[in-house]
Design a protein that fits this description.
17 helices; 6-stranded antiparallel sheet; 6-stranded mixed sheet; alpha+beta; rod-shaped; single chain
């Protein structure tokens, strides 16, 4: 329902103002008009100003206008203000009697109180009757005050004016009622719109909160491909795909790649496919480059309008990097374990076959073949033990010479050091007695030295040290091998972790040695640390506090 110009004008200049202002504005036109009429009388016939009735009528009008200005209308009952237009009828009657025939149209002043009374909205029927009676009495006052008995003609002749005022009063009541109904309807509609807007804003905030809460990137696009909604998760993912020196790229310029890390064609990109009307699930892409690259599983659904035509799409981006890496790690683990198991199994099978099928073998040769098979069986058993070993490792402490454990470790690693052209330098206090589990500490040293040799495929220097600091045992293994990146160092103690350089160079291993070594050291109450620089080398060290037996004298020894 549109608001008429009259309603807009009245609403702007009347309803939206204070009650006192509305009362004053309702009385002001009447006061000014009567004052103008008094001025005309003063110009045309100054003698009439001596008419007491005329002046009383004007003064009554002035007092009523003053009352409109000073009375506290908000504190009075609403109907109290109707006293003003009823008294205005008296002022009109007095002023008309005083003006005599000079201003024959002065009776028309009654229009002002009639309009106010009928437009007030209070008792419209009473207002119409009162307006009609007041106008009738005003026009009959001269007839009744004339000498002699008034004739029927005298009484009927001025009745046109009261009927005109009756029609005017009815018209004002009807118009005012219609305007009030329209105004009430508009107020109700405005309230409904405000309520609907508030609810819509609440739903929008709720939807934004829900969309931002889920750990999935969500983007909504229109049929032209323009973004209509993008949650915070998607904004973070989108940032990864922004190429350097282009802060506002088009979708075809984003760093998006296929699962094999090849460049993703523009028409194959998730949002473009969605804009083209495709719906898909679990469509995998990569976004970003380097260590920040993330694997995304994307899903898209079309938005249809009321006629079933394409009106946009919703595309969800789920970060599945951890799952993809886990699957890759699983594949690497299976491949590595298969490789590590195949070598000793092949040796066992080969030498047992030689011992069984070679005719005329001497017992000594058979024993050598069986010894080789047994050694590979022990190696296979060690691999199985590593796979079964978890963080719940028990230690059996006893006095052990750590210097001797270190020496034995270096001797065992000598063949591998020779094969990789690694020079070994070892120093330790001798003896270095400590209350530790000798078997477990030997396992730690073997793992650290073995890793240092394996990760020095191009040769280098391996430095192994052990010393006591009070009652604390310190051991350190340093190599000049290929080293590790910062991201590789973050996962080095995780189960089945394999550095990218190790995979690329096909260095054997199943990614359990350092995890087991750290668990053994921690079971002794110690700590293990790592320092590494890619292309420079790695230092692995551990400290076991309060385990060195101080009663043994110690001297530095090299081996």
């Amino acid at each position: 329902m549109s608001e008429s110009p009259a309603n807009q004008f009245i609403g702007r200049h009347l309803y939206q103002r204070s009650l006192r202002t509305r009362v004053v504005l309702s009385q002001l036109p009447f006061f000014l008009t009567m004052t103008l009429a008094l001025l005309l009388i003063a110009i045309l016939n100054p003698a009439l100003l001596r008419e007491t009735v005329l002046l009383i009528g004007w003064l009554l009008n002035g007092l009523l206008f003053l009352a409109c200005l000073v009375l506290p209308w908000k504190k009075l009952p609403p109907a109290t203000l109707l006293v003003i237009p009823y008294l205005d009828f008296v002022a009109v009657a007095l002023f008309r009697d005083g003006a005599q025939a000079l201003l024959s149209s002065s009776a028309i002043l009654i229009l002002f109180p009639i309009f106010w009374l009928c437009a007030s909205g209070f008792a419209p029927k009473t207002a119409i009757i009162a307006s009609t009676l007041a106008s009738w009495l005003i026009v009959w006052s001269n007839v009744l005050q004339a000498p002699g008995t008034p004739t029927v003609q005298d009484l009927v002749k001025p009745l046109l004016f009261p009927f005109m005022m009756l029609a005017f009063a009815i018209a004002v009541v009807v118009l005012t009622s219609s305007m009030e109904e329209q105004r009430a309807a508009l107020v109700a509609k405005d309230q409904l719109l405000r309520t609907a807007l508030k609810e819509s804003q609440q739903r929008e905030r709720l939807m934004e909160t829900i969309v931002d809460t889920v750990g999935v990137g969500v983007v909504v696009v229109d049929s032209a491909g323009h973004d209509r909604l993008m949650n915070s998760t998607q904004q973070d993912l989108h940032t990864l795909g922004v190429p350097p020196n282009n802060q506002d790229p088009e979708e075809k310029e984003l760093l998006l790649f296929n699962p094999d890390r090849s460049w993703l064609a523009p028409d194959a990109r998730p949002v473009r496919r969605a804009i083209n009307g495709e719906s898909f699930t679990n469509y995998q892409v990569w976004i970003g480059t380097g260590e920040q690259a993330r694997a995304l599983s994307t899903t898209a659904r079309a938005i249809l309008d009321d006629e079933g035509a394409f009106d946009g799409a919703v595309v969800a981006f789920h970060d599945v990097t951890d799952m993809v890496n886990a699957l890759a790690a699983k594949d690497d683990f299976v491949a590595n374990v298969s490789h590590e198991f195949r070598t000793p199994l092949t040796a066992i099978q080969s030498y047992l076959e030689l011992a069984r099928e070679t005719p005329g073998l001497q017992p000594r040769e058979v024993g050598r073949y069986l010894a080789i098979a047994d050694r590979n069986a022990e190696r296979l058993s060690g691999l199985v033990s590593d796979l079964l070993t978890t963080a719940s490792i028990t230690v059996d402490r006893a006095p052990n010479n750590v210097a001797q454990l270190l020496s034995d470790c270096i001797v065992s690693a000598t063949p591998a050091c020779v094969a990789n052209a690694v020079v070994v330098e070892g120093t330790s206090q001798e003896p270095l007695m400590a209350m530790v589990d000798g078997v477990r500490i030997s396992q730690v040293l073997d793992n650290l030295v073995s890793n240092a040799v394996k990760y020095s495929p191009d040769g280098g220097t391996l430095t192994v040290r052990a010393w006591a600091d009070g009652t604390d045992l310190h051991c350190e293994v340093t190599d000049t091998g290929i080293g590790m990146s910062a991201s590789e160092q973050a996962g080095v103690f995780q189960k089945f972790f394999r550095a990218g350089t190790a995979v690329d160079r096909q260095i054997p291993g199943i990614g359990l040695g350092l995890m087991i070594s750290k668990s053994i050291v921690e079971s002794h109450g110690g700590t293990m640390a790592l320092q590494s620089r890619q292309g420079v080398g790695t230092t692995m060290s551990f400290v076991i506090p309060g385990c060195v037996i101080a009663s043994y004298s110690a001297n530095a020894a090299a081996f």
